[in-house]
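Researcher: Please predict.
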Amino acid sequence: VTLVESGGGLEQVGGSLKLSCSASGLPFDIIYMAWFRQPPGKEPEFVSAMNRDGTTLQYSDSVKDRFTISRDNAKNTLFLQMNNLNAEDTAVYFCAASLLARPKDRGDYRYFGQGTQVTVSA
């Protein structure tokens, strides 16, 4: 099982980035996918998640209305469109996969990628 994130980088406040997560070794179209992030010096935190057909979308309050999660099951890829970035979005972003129908917290996700760094500067 491999999850590989890409698309991170340095962006200015108010800018946008789009993260991708390529999955292999999993039945992608039946798994619940999510993004987590770990700001410098802090614990990992939930960002967003979605079920396989997109009928269930979840966002943390801090990113709601700015970030959009999506997936392309045909390409085994998860995305995170991040708009109107602010300094508090600076973190390493991880994608995660769960085989559960309704994972409730980070412990319910079995697979994680290595992460991609997002840095937002003023």
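Model: The first strand starts at residue 2 and ends at 6.
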